[in-house]
Specification:
Order of helices and strands: HEEHEEHEHHEE
Shape: globular
Number of strands: 7
Radius of gyration: 16 Å
Strand order of the largest sheet: 3-2-1-4-5-7-6
Structural class: alpha/beta
Length: about 200
């Protein structure tokens, strides 16, 4: 089953499963959005769970590869300057230096190539722009045999469990501003990167 087919089937259940488990961590991550009006890319917008948490003074672009998920985001965008775009997080359909901030919530460990997703985020960010990440990252050097064993199966259904952020960031123009545990005993991390 393709990832697109998996997420089409998951779309009706996604909110019930993901919203409650991640709401607090997502809100804490979004507290780091720029304070002045900015162009914000929500990469992997999914059903738009982040949209009700967003301040109305920015211009938002929500990108997702799955049309069923993207369609579910539209009702949540009321009162926001919001443009939905269907596209691939590993090959973003935007010009270089188009955004002041890129939000990557629950996407870097979902796509087949997390490093490509981060490379594209760096490309479309303006110098000095921030990338806000929330995802399942395996600490560097940690064996975690169960997570590594289950990752190929989980990756075919919805998400990888063995992505090491430091490996994915190698040679990318990002500085790590913060990297904190966000949920489930540190399985989920809240990370703020700065485009240098």
């Amino acid at each position: 089953m393709s990832l697109d087919a998996s997420y089409t089937r998951l779309a009706p259940l996604y909110d019930a499963v993901v919203d409650l488990a991640s709401r607090g961590a997502r809100r804490a991550s979004l507290d780091a959005l720029p304070r002045s009006p900015s162009d914000i890319l929500l990469c992997g917008i999914g059903t738009g769970l982040d949209l009700p948490c967003l301040p109305p003074d920015h211009r938002y672009t929500g990108l997702d590869f799955n049309s069923a998920m993207l369609a579910r985001s539209l009702p949540r965008a009321e009162g926001l300057d919001y443009r939905p775009v269907r596209g691939d997080a590993m090959r973003l359909p935007f010009r270089d230096a188009s955004f002041d901030c890129v939000v990557l919530h629950l996407i870097v460990a979902v796509v087949p190539d997390g490093a490509a997703c981060l490379r594209e985020a760096a490309r479309v960010l303006k110098p000095g722009g921030a990338a806000l990440l929330l995802d399942k990252f395996l600490p560097a050097g940690r064996p975690a045999p169960l997570r590594r064993l289950l990752s190929p199966i989980a990756g075919r259904i919805a998400t990888r469990l063995d992505l090491v952020l430091e490996d994915a960031l190698k040679d990318l123009p990002f500085g790590v501003v913060s990297n904190e545990p966000a949920a489930f005993g540190g399985w989920f991390r809240r990370v703020r990167l700065l485009r240098v």
